[in-house]
UniProtKB/TrEMBL annotation:
Keyword hit for ATP-binding: yes
UniProt xrefs under InterPro entries: P-loop_NTPase (IPR027417), RapZ-like (IPR005337), RapZ-like_N (IPR053930), RapZ_C (IPR053931)
Chain positions recorded as ATP binding sites: 8-15
Binding annotation for GTP: 60-63
UniProt-recorded name of the protein: RNase adapter RapZ
Length: 295
């Protein structure tokens, strides 16, 4: 039986993760009072059976003052021989603030004040849990389906987990460099499909544009060197504790060359199952939308 404690900062996706585990036939309990945690763990052998194979327990800032007792409780459970895993959901402060504004909910520790003050206080209170976590998933740039894939990979398929999500992002320089980019590469030196009449309305998602760019020897050499460098960097970033890496590839409009190279890099990297990978094209439709608006 797997006993998973699901926790993390408010707004990072703990409720969604619990629902995903429930869908994977985990018996889930949310917001159990901390003083009852040891008693709950002692009852697990009795509830284990055909209907209950695995258990997930949600704990967060709603536990209030009893959260301060949790570290001692976990230590006693470890000493008593109870086996458990801790999944910690995290996200960037700016993303958390945006999520709270969109849902118009108040932060449990904001006490009627600013959301970012609540986030700061919660991080202080939850820091010991993050340090003890077996798995940390940063949901800042994850879609719901991508979080579900990570949850299933770890807790259903029992695959090895490495706490690194790599986002390959195409963009257009004329719309600005992505604020969250860790690495930025400029591919405006490659042949531009924009100047080929039949390719101009297409994007790097179309074979015509993709083949036009990648048939260039310079593009292939660049992709080889970029792949080699990223494969070198990722494990070194992991050693330093980095959990999220955004690789931004830009051309003028973010429609042709950057999309092509982002596709190519993602294709080369995503076969490595040790890490999570996602592909995003930020500006691929911007030109079309602007032209439509102008009309």
């Amino acid at each position: 039986m797997r006993f998973v404690i699901v926790t993390g900062v408010s707004g990072a996706g703990k409720t969604a993760a619990l629902k995903m585990l429930e869908d994977a036939n985990y018996f889930c309990v949310d917001n159990l009072p901390i003083p009852l945690l040891e008693k709950f763990a002692s009852l697990m052998p009795e509830i284990h059976g055909e209907d209950v194979q695995n258990v997930a327990l949600g704990i967060d800032a709603r536990s209030g003052r009893s959260l301060d007792e949790l570290e001692a409780v976990l230590d006693r459970m470890k000493k008593a021989g109870y086996e458990f895993e801790i999944l910690f959901l995290d996200a960037e402060d700016s993303v958390l603030v945006k999520r709270y504004k969109e849902t118009r909910r108040s932060h449990p520790l904001a006490m009627g004040g600013r959301v970012d003050d609540g986030i700061r206080l919660e991080r202080e209170k939850m820091q010991f849990l993050k340090k003890r976590a077996d798995y940390i998933i940063d949901t800042s740039h994850l879609l719901t389906r991508e979080l579900k894939q990570e949850i299933e990979r770890i807790f259903v398929a029992n695959q090895d987990f490495c706490n690194m999500m790599v986002s390959v992002l195409s963009f257009g320089f004329k719309y600005g460099i992505p604020a969250d980019a860790d690495l930025v590469f400029d591919v405006r030196f490659l042949p531009n499909p924009y100047y080929v009449d039949e390719l101009r309305p297409m994007t790097g998602m179309d074979d015509g544009v993709f083949n036009y760019v990648m048939n260039c020897d310079t593009a292939r050499k660049f992709a080889d060197k970029l792949e080699d460098m990223i494969n070198f960097l990722i494990p070194n970033y992991v050693k330093e504790g980095k959990t999220n890496l955004v690789i931004a590839i830009g051309c003028t409009g973010g429609k042709h060359r950057s999309v092509t190279l982002a596709r190519e890099l993602y294709s080369r990297l995503s076969g490595n199952e040790r890490y999570g990978f996602r592909l995003e094209h930020r500006d691929i439709d911007k030109d079309r939308l602007l032209k439509k608006h102008e009309r």
